[in-house]
């Protein structure tokens, strides 16, 4: 049976197809792991399926409520969200290539994004009257969690990228090894300008400062393990092979109460908002007719 016709769930009569489920799983894989679905391991696949099903049901409930209230996200907001996602990739071409490899058309992804942005804006609208925490709540939070309220360390690094894909992996590896043999602290920026396949090449490969979680894991693991001024051996990521040079490093340091205040306010609001949204979805779900089929997996 065609995946678009195979129903895995219904929300108030609106079907969620296997195609919808796998598209949501693909979206999760791309946004959380920057991988296609077939690149996930078994645990990541189960995580993606569970997350995708719950997200689709909650999203459909909120989307239906938005439509009932005559609310739909505008095109500018959708375009902005798309830009943020595309910016996570080395280039727009790489983004579209990943979509194609995942079996997603631009129209499919746009449809998913429109519903997501509508749901996000509807959720923000629902939480608009959420109060900021009181000074006492902020003080209590700071006192209880001061040891965890730190400005995370960061590094400033430059890199040289040789893209690898398809049948050219060995040639790319050979090329990056030759460049590593040439690389020194004095000529690294010039090598990056001449040979890097990254948009950062004109700036000598300078990526600026970043913290853990900002880069893909193999890249950040290498960068945070290097001494200032050191050049890494070739590091492989899904983008290709990198040489990394650390230019500067800042260590973790505790935040003062005032420095931590915006972070504390945001955290408490997020916690309160998550609780209110969960309750709202549960209320919508209690009033809805939801059926989940047992044929989600082949």
UniProtKB/TrEMBL annotation:
SUPFAM superfamilies in the cross-refs = FKBP-like, Triger factor/SurA peptide-binding domain-like
What is one Pfam family matched by this protein? SurA_N_3
- Output the superkingdom of the source species: Bacteria
Cite the entry's keywords alphabetically.
Isomerase, Rotamase
Cross-referenced InterPro entries: PPIase_dom_sf, PPIase_PpiC, PPIase_PpiC_CS, PrsA_foldase, Trigger_fact/SurA_dom_sf
> Residues in domain PpiC?
152-248
Is the keyword Transcription regulation in the record? no
In its keyword annotation, does this UniProt entry include Transmembrane? no
Q: Which molecular function term from Gene Ontology is one that the record holds?
A: peptidyl-prolyl cis-trans isomerase activity
Question: What's the protein called, per UniProt?
Answer: Peptidyl-prolyl cis-trans isomerase C
């Amino acid at each position: 049976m065609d995946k678009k016709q195979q129903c895995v769930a219904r929300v108030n009569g609106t079907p969620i197809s296997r195609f919808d489920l796998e598209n949501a799983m693909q979206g999760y894989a791309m946004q959380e792991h920057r991988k296609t679905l077939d690149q996930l391991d078994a645990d990541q696949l189960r995580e993606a399926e569970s997350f995708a099903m719950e997200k689709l049901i909650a999203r459909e409930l909120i989307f239906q409520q938005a439509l009932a209230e005559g609310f739909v996200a505008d095109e500018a907001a959708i375009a902005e969200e798309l830009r943020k996602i595309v910016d996570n990739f080395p280039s727009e071409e790489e983004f579209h290539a990943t979509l194609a490899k995942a079996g997603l058309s631009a129209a499919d992804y746009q449809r998913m994004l429109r519903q997501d942005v509508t749901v996000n804006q509807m959720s923000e609208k629902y939480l608009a009257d959420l109060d900021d925490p009181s000074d006492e709540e902020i003080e209590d939070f700071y006192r209880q969690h001061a040891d965890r309220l730190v400005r995370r360390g960061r590094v400033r690094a430059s890199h040289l990228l040789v893209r690898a894909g398809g049948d050219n992996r060995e040639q790319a590896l050979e090329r990056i090894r030759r460049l590593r043999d040439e690389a020194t602290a004095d000529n690294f920026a010039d090598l990056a300008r001449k040979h890097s396949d990254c948009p950062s090449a004109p700036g000598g490969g300078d990526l600026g400062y970043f913290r853990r979680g900002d880069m893909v894991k193999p890249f950040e693991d290498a960068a945070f393990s290097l001494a200032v001024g050191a050049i890494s051996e070739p590091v492989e990521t899904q983008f290709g092979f990198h040489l990394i040079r650390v230019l500067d490093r800042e260590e973790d340091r505790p935040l003062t109460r005032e420095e931590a205040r915006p972070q504390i306010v945001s955290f408490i609001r997020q916690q309160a908002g998550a609780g209110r949204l969960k309750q709202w979805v549960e209320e919508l779900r209690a009033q809805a007719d939801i059926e989940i089929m047992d044929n989600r997996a082949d």
